[in-house]
User: What shape does this take?
Amino acid sequence: MTTTFTDDGRAHLDRYLHRLRLALSSQLSVDVSDVERDIISHIDAELAGEPQPIGAQRLTAVLDRLGPPDRWLPVDDVPAGGPAIAPRSAAEWRLPVVILTLFVLGIFSFMQMLLWPVPLLLMVVSVLTARAWLSSLVQEGGEIGARRWFVYPPLVTMYALLASVVIAWPLPLVVGMLTDDPVMRASMVRWFNDRSDVATALAAFTAVGAWWLILGPALYRFHRAAGRAFSPFADWFGRRHALWATLAGALLAGGSAALLFRMSL
Amino acid sequence: MPYHALTATMHSMIVLGAVDIADNWTTQLRKGLLELCMLNVIGRGRVYGYDIVRQLRDVDALVVSEGTIYPILSRLKRDGLVRTSLEESPSGPARKYYELTRRGEQLRDDMNGHWDLLTRGIAVIRERAK
Assistant: This one.
């Protein structure tokens, strides 16, 4: 090979070639080392004339076009029901299984309130490992396949919790302030009589709407970071969605405040 | 389960089933056509492996993953349809060139003839269906 790579580029290429050998080893009519030489020659030809050494990012563009070896069209007969997918080795399942196990252990110990804060730690480690594993999978150009059922549950659960806190944290805060504090509660009853519960809810909605009015522009400015925070489920998040959040905040805050004002008359 | 939910679920299952069938059909078709196109590209004369990819990548929807071509080349070689030769390159290591064997030429001609027959027949059927 004439192309020279950076350390991460070389590591990336080695992972890809390992994946290639693994995927093609099941195809009896293919000379794996022959194909590997062809692929190396292809990469050399693609990167000829480019400034060296080649980093992982540039190499990824070439490997993306080559495609993941386990998704190449099978050379032997295609079995009924779809293209053959090279059987995944146990090693490829190990980390997804560990991720789900950590998460289930975290949930179980959380429900039993065992060894606090170990449950939280287990769940956080599970989520961080899942994210790191997914990111490495994307870099290798791999397919997640059925392993999604092991990796996505911790992510979905933690993302849902995080999203609900980010979106609606003023709600419990305002309701708590207006109902738990005797002075505030007395004031609410004095202003709104028997409709103080409705007024409390409206005040909380106004606060949530006002928060969205702050959150929306922040998301507009940092929409990529927001998408990455909830990756791979929010990669689609863009400025348009941040504008919608701002508009929804304006409507919620404005509508709730108007109703509250009307009730106070 | 309410009637509408039940029919919606059944509809989704039918649609998803149709998508699976279409995917499988496309894969099989692409595999066959890729071999036909590769034999034709190699049949023009000795050609470097990377050049085969470059010529085929221009055909939309034929080459989804460029790497697919190399295992097929390996299989064609094993089956005695192509032969390879190494040639020094001024810009790097020796390059592997592919060319059709007599058997490969025969297969290419057979496949081209069969393809022409099929496309003509299919065109007639599709025309009648309009």
Observations:
- Chain B has four helices and three strands.
